[in-house]
Amino acid sequence: MQPTNSFLTPDNPFTELVTYWLDDIDAEGRISKTTRNLYERNMRTLVPPVFHDLTLREIGVVRSIH
Fold first, then answer.
1. Of 2, 9, 61, 62, which alpha carbon lies 20 to 30 A from 55's?
2. d(CA 19, CA 25)
């Protein structure tokens, strides 16, 4: 089973990626309900202040070389 929204673009808001990711976790059924709920709580309460208004295009990963 695939998440309901199986097509994300760089213009999708970050919140849609979170929904997609949580739907994917539910479809896999490989983690406990408690862990899944913890992931959701963190993604809905801790992350949005930074990423809420950004699109996927606006988010990147920076690597530092030591």
1. 2
2. 10
